[in-house]
Each structure stands twice: as structure tokens, then as C-alpha cells.
């Protein structure tokens, strides 16, 4: 985080805390007034100060973020495929009954029946 981004973030946090304190003071003063003609809503200057301070804090945090790195999903997925998929976090999702290839399972079962019967398939 650079100096400018830290300074921006700290300035925004100071403004945000001031807006919070102002809102607290406004509610305390409004609750103590017997015959208040003011509305119970916060004044617009406090609301605007809070919104501006949030934008400034967000700007400071974005400026201080590290540079983005390129996505290396294909490298990671290729490594998982080479290892056989033991570390694949999506393996459970891919093996759900909705994703089973029925034709491949039928062929696998038919091959198993042929090898178990010695090539003689029972006909009915």
C-alpha cells in the first residue's frame, strides 16, 4: 500500500468517524428536545459526508491493492488432470448422478458381462 493510498484511506476513515459522531450528536440532541420542530431524519450534510467518506475509503483501498496477476486456471487444471484428479475440488460435482454418461456405463457393463460369461451372452 503506497503512501498516497494510506493517506486517502485514513482521511476517509476520519471523515466517516466524524459523520458517525455527528449522527450520534444529532440523535442525542433530537431526543432531548421537548418541543422539537425538526424532523427525526438525519440532516443531508451528515448523509452526504458519510457517503463521500465511504467513496474516499473505497478509493484509498483500491489504490492500495496489489497488481492483479494473470489467471492460470488452465495450468492448474492440466496439473490436476495429470495427477488423476485426486485433488480436484469439483470431482464430487462431476460424479453426481446427473452427470453420469449412461451410454458409457451401459457399454462398460456389457463389456463386463461378456468377459464374465466368457463371450457367451445369454439370450432370452
UniProtKB/TrEMBL annotation:
GO cellular component terms? EMC complex
Tell me the compartments it is located in: Endomembrane system
Q: Which Gene Ontology BP annotations are present?
A: protein folding in endoplasmic reticulum
Q: Which InterPro entries match?
A: EMC_subunit (IPR053279), MMgT (IPR018937)
UniProt keyword list: Membrane, Signal, Transmembrane, Transmembrane helix
Give one Pfam hit by family name. MMgT
Membrane topology label: Multi-pass membrane protein
Signal peptide region: 1-19
Q: Which PANTHER family match?
A: ER MEMBRANE PROTEIN COMPLEX SUBUNIT 5 (PTHR28144:SF1)
Q: Which protein family is it in?
A: Belongs to the membrane magnesium transporter (TC 1.A.67) family.
Protein name, entry field = Magnesium transporter
Q: Tell me the classification of the organism that encodes this protein.
A: Eukaryota, Fungi, Dikarya, Ascomycota, Pezizomycotina
Amino acid at each position: 500500500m503506497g503512501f498516497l493510498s494510506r493517506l486517502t484511506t485514513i482521511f476517509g476513515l476520519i471523515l466517516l468517524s466524524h459523520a458517525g459522531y455527528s449522527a450520534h450528536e444529532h440523535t442525542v440532541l433530537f431526543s432531548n428536545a421537548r418541543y422539537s420542530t425538526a424532523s427525526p431524519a438525519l440532516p443531508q450534510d451528515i448523509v452526504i459526508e458519510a457517503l463521500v467518506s465511504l467513496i474516499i475509503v473505497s478509493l484509498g483501498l483500491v489504490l492500495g491493492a496489489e497488481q492483479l496477476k494473470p489467471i492460470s486456471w488452465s495450468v492448474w487444471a492440466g496439473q490436476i488432470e495429470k495427477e488423476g484428479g485426486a485433488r480436484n475440488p469439483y470431482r464430487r460435482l462431476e460424479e453426481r448422478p446427473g452427470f453420469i454418461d449412461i451410454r458409457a456405463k451401459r457399454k462398460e457393463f456389457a463389456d463386463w458381462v461378456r468377459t464374465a460369461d466368457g463371450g457367451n451372452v445369454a439370450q432370452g
